Amino acid sequence: MSAVRGNDVKTRLAVATVAVTLLALWLGPVARAGDTTFHGPLTATSGSGTGRIQGATTGEDQGTLVVQGTANVHGTSSNTTFTIQRALDAEPDGVCDTSGGFVALGTFTTSSGGAGAGHFERHAPLPSGQAFDVLFQVVGTDGTVLESPCFTVTVK
Fold first, then answer.
1. pLDDT for the residue 21
2. 122 exposed, middle or buried (CB, 10 Å; 0-12, 13-18, 19+)?
3. If you average pLDDT over every residue of the chain, what do you get?
4. What pLDDT score does 7 carry?
5. For residue 22, what is the enclosing H or E element?
6. Measured between alpha carbons, how far is 106 from 39 in angstroms, rounded to an integer?
7. pTM of the predicted model, to two decimals?
8. 150 Cβ partners below 8 Å, 6+ apart?
9. Cα separation of 53 and 121, whole Å?
10. Where are the chain's structural domains?
11. pLDDT category of residue 98 using cuts at 50, 70 and 90
C-alpha cells in the first residue's frame, strides 16, 4: 500500500512540475515595471532563425546600473558573426522608442549548424530604482535581425 502512495506522490509532483513549466512558457516574455530581470524570445524581423534573450541587473556597483545577460540563437546561417545590441528608452511605459539608436553589447559567431550564444555586460551611471524600457536586437553579418519584445527594467 505504501508503494502505491509513493508512486501517487511522484505522479502528482510530475504533473505539477509540467503544469508550472507550461504556465511559464505560456506567459512568454517577462519584465514589468519594478523587475530587475528580463527574458523573452528573439524573433526574426529579417533573415531566419529564432532565439532567446535573458538578463538581470545586479547589485555589483550599488548606485549604478550593472546588467549581465545572454543571447542565444538557432536556425540561423552557419559561421555568421552576430552583434548583440540594445536601444534604451528612458520612459518606462512598455513601449520602446529606438530613436536614440542601438549600442553594441558584444558579438558571437554561430556554429556550422547555425546556432550560437553570447554573453554581455553593461555598466551605466543610472541610480538604484531608476526604470527604463529596453529593446534588444541580435544582428548578423548576413543581414539577419532577431528582435526581442520591449522590456521595462529597474536598476537594482
1. 41
2. middle
3. 83
4. 60
5. helix 2-27
6. 18
7. 0.76
8. 89, 94, 95, 96, 133, 134, 135
9. 13
10. 1-28, 31-154
11. very high
Distance, in Å, from the CA atom of 36 to the CA atom of 15, rounded to the nearest integer, reads 30
Question: How many Å apart are CA 47 and CA 60, to the nearest integer?
Answer: 37
Please name the residue that has the C-alpha cell 503544469: 19
For residue 126, the model assigns a pLDDT of: 84
Q: Are 155 and 88 in contact, with CB atoms under 8 Å apart?
A: no
For residue 16, what is its C-alpha cell?
505539477
Q: Quick one: cell of 58?
A: 545586479
The DSSP H or E segment spanning 77 is none
Which fold, 31-154? Immunoglobulin-like (2.60.40)
Q: What is the pLDDT of residues 24-38, one digit of tens each?
A: 444 444 444 446 789
Neighbours of 11 (CB within 10 A): 10
Give the total residue count for the chain. 156
Distance of CA 44 to the CA centre of its chain: 14
